[in-house]
Amino acid sequence: MSTVRLRRLQADFEKVSDYVRRHPRLQLIQTDGTPPERYQVEFQVKGLRQKGDELAVVASHMVEVLLPLSYPRMPPQCRMLTPVFHPNIAPHAICIGDHWSPGEPLWSILARIGEMIAYQSYNTRSPLNGEAAKWVEQHKDDLPLDPISLMPDEPPGPTAAAAAGPASAASAPATALVAATPPPPPAAAVPAPPATMAFACTSCRSMLKMPREMGGKRVRCPRCQAIIRAPGGPAEDSHG
């Protein structure tokens, strides 16, 4: 094994391990090789499974990723170990795009597969499953099936209380805690915000429609594959 390939496999393994450890919906089930050349990963996200003529929502899916000898010049070989009904997933393969970039890390491939399972990402123009592509065109208003962000959780910043440090007993006399203030008047009812939000990708300017709970989280643009932050949440960490 070449030194370049060995370094890449080791870097992929370290980043995948960190990604899975930080994401609550992923679990690394098995690896083969040192460093690994084959991965089995469980995704605990909502996806579809076809059972006869009916579709069922299933919340656990197994994926196998094989890194061939030509990797990273050529893309990894990805397939489902449990069936998934999706335009770009067939029993023998998962289509991870028409253009492969050797610089894309393996954890990002796993994130893209999770986004596909959850129907956050799909391509109906050149499907592997034509029946699933037709289903998507008829049910776009019901998608995604699972709004969970597949981007790794960012380390939380220090809270205001933690930044201020422990309170000093001398700075707050016990008598100050006795005085009570009258309760504030009840707040007027505020209409609930819309369940979805629309915003433009900062890279390709295409319009994205996503659940409002994705506000402030990093998401992937289905059109240009850029990772951007959805508006509406806390400001982005200065470290990126």
From TrEMBL:
It comes from the Bacteria. CDD domains: UBCc_UEV. InterPro entries: UBC, UBQ-conjugating_enzyme/RWD. It holds the Pfam family UQ_con. Residues 62-140 form the UBC core domain. Residues 147-167 are annotated as: Disordered. This is Ubiquitin-conjugating enzyme. The lineage of its organism: Bacteria, Pseudomonadati, Planctomycetota, Planctomycetia, Isosphaerales.
